[in-house]
Recover the amino acids of this structure.
């Protein structure tokens, strides 16, 4: 399987719960490396730009408001099959539907406050990594 990179965000709810380390351990314990990381408070523009693909969805405004409500940890994860591996570790978008033992099942409260974001495919991974870490190579290798 190819070594890939994917974008991960630990969202404000998980940062506020003080589980950054526990979430990062899930990645590291499952063979993913932290290739880049930054903690920051997103501006409204940054959050709107990142989630631009959801602009027309009814939850867009609430999503942006939530994502700027506190600091987030933005990371590039790297490893074999990193994109799918990260999504498997995260669990379903709605924590109520997330499999037991996944990050969202263990740390998230609702579909809005769902602890983590992860790129869903190679093209979005490349776009999302370039959005937050323009200096990194954005191709899978
Ligand atoms: P994320 O993976 O960050 O991508 C978009 C986010 O929108 C998603 O996680 C959820 O937190 C949020 N969201 C809120 N309502 C919905 C919904 N009905 N469907 C998908 N995502 C939603």
């Amino acid at each position: 399987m190819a070594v890939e990179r994917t974008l991960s965000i630990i969202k404000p709810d998980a940062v506020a719960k003080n589980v950054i380390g526990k979430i990062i351990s899930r990645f590291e314990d499952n063979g993913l490396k932290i290739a880049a990381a930054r903690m920051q408070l997103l501006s409204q523009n940054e959050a709107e730009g990142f989630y631009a693909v959801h602009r027309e969805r009814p939850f867009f405004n609430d999503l942006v408001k939530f994502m700027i409500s506190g600091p987030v940890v933005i990371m590039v994860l790297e490893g074999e099959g990193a994109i799918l591996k990260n999504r498997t570790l995260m669990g379903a978008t709605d924590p109520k539907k997330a499999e037991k033992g996944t990050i969202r099942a263990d740390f998230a409260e609702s579909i809005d406050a769902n602890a983590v974001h992860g790129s869903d495919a190679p093209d979005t991974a490349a776009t999302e990594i370039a959005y937050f870490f323009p200096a990194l190579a954005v191709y899978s290798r």
In short: Residues 122-132 form the longest helix (11 residues). Strands lie at 3-10, 33-40, 72-80, 116-118.
